Amino acid sequence: MASSARTRVEVDGRELSLSNLDKVLYPEAGFTKGDVIRYYVDVAPALLPHVAGRPLTVRRLPDGVDGPSFYEKHLPRGTPEWVRRVTLAPSPRSTSAEIEFVVIDGLATLVWLANLAALELHVPMWRVDARGRPTPPDLLVFDLDPGDPATVVECAQVAVELARLLADEHGLTALPKSSGSKGLQLYVRLPKKLRGTWDNGATAAEARRLATLCARRRPELVVANMRKDQRVGRVLIDWSQNNVAKTTVAPYSLRARAQPTVSTPVTWDEVASCAEGRDPAVLAFLPDQVRQRIDGAGDLFAPLG
Questions:
Q1: Are 119 and 153 in a shared domain?
Q2: How far apart are CA 175 and CA 125, in angstroms?
Q3: Is 87 helix (H, G, I), strand (E, B) or coil?
Q4: Is the pLDDT of residue 1 over 60?
Q5: Is the four-CA dihedral 246, 103, 202, 242 of positive or negative sign?
Q6: Strand partners of residue 139
Q7: Residue 181 sits in the same domain as residue 288
Q8: Which of 52, 240, 255, 305 is packed most tightly, with the most Cβ within 10 A?
Q9: Beta-bridge mates of residue 88
Q10: Whole domain around residue 97: which residue ranges?
Q11: Widest CA span of the chain, in angstroms?
Q12: What are the tens digits of pLDDT across the range 232-260?
């Protein structure tokens, strides 16, 4: 049984009260809340640039991955005053009530969220400026989602095709990362000439065009239509993550799966190895492996930060 003892720590000049550090959140791995916090502290130098200025959605699992979970956009009750927050409409032209989002602007906020069992961190492809106003998307993302019996192996094959298309169409360089779940994701840093405005949908429209073009070129492997009955044995290129109302799991975020897998930036050599060797394990990573990768090669997504 987890202890209810609280531990007071100072992080970047902020005093935090951490609780239930020995509570197991990943039973299959024996991975505790303390392990979660320690992981996020260790990878913070690589992770923080990718969430800075981006309104946050978290997936919280207070009783661990075998218990219920919920996604949270709104500022949690009891949020410390020093945590940065921005108040925004859910989407352009929305008539819904505005939402007060958390923005991770430093290690203390990251540790505070980890203590809330916010295992997964999800962010949009745009940031807010110093005054909290949304700015045009600076990233383009493609979420490659395999339909059974396809796996991340087929995603790796599609990633190679899509990266070639991005280079041919726009001269853009794509960077891959594992989703930490079943698939793979490609990110592109958008040049200013392609950013449009926050609310005109230009980024999502171009992502859809490119996904559709890739599906026409490789119809046996790729689908750009969101209908689930069309995904069987193929890979959906989910272009819709570029809608300003959508979020994608952040680089280096844990995932709420049986094992504490991590959404991890990877090299194109690793993608090719997975595609050619048909071994999904090539693109699956746990916290200790991610720590070692950062220690050895730094942040492979640094060009996007």
A1: no
A2: 14
A3: strand
A4: no
A5: negative
A6: 189
A7: yes
A8: 255
A9: 99
A10: 6-123
A11: 58
A12: 999 999 999 999 999 999 999 999 999 99
**Tokens for 21?**
């550090």
Strand partners, 123: 248
Total of domains in the chain: 2
Which of 93 and 161 is assigned the larger pLDDT? 161
Strand partners, 134: 128
Inside any domain, residue 228: yes
> What was the pLDDT predicted at 236?
98
CA–CA distance, 156 with 228 (Å, rounded to integer): 20
- If one counts every other C-beta atom within 10 angstroms of the C-beta of residue 215, the result is 20
Enter the DSSP assignment of 44.
H
**Rounded distance, CA 186 to CA 274, Å?**
15
Q: What is the average per-residue pLDDT within 268-272?
A: 98
User: In angstroms, rounded to a whole number, what is the distance separating the alpha carbons of residues 41 and 34?
Assistant: 11
Contact 128, 136 (CB under 8 A): no
Q: pTM for the full model?
A: 0.95
- Beta strands 85-88 and 70-72 are unpaired
Which pair of structure tokens corresponds to residue 108?
């203390």
Report the half-sphere exposure of 254 (CA within 13 A, side-chain side). 35
Question: How would you classify the pairing of strands 222-223 and 235-238?
Answer: parallel
CATH number of the domain encompassing residue 255: 3.30.70.3300
* 156 CB burial (10 A radius; 0-12, 13-18, 19+): buried
Residue 153 and residue 290 share a domain? yes
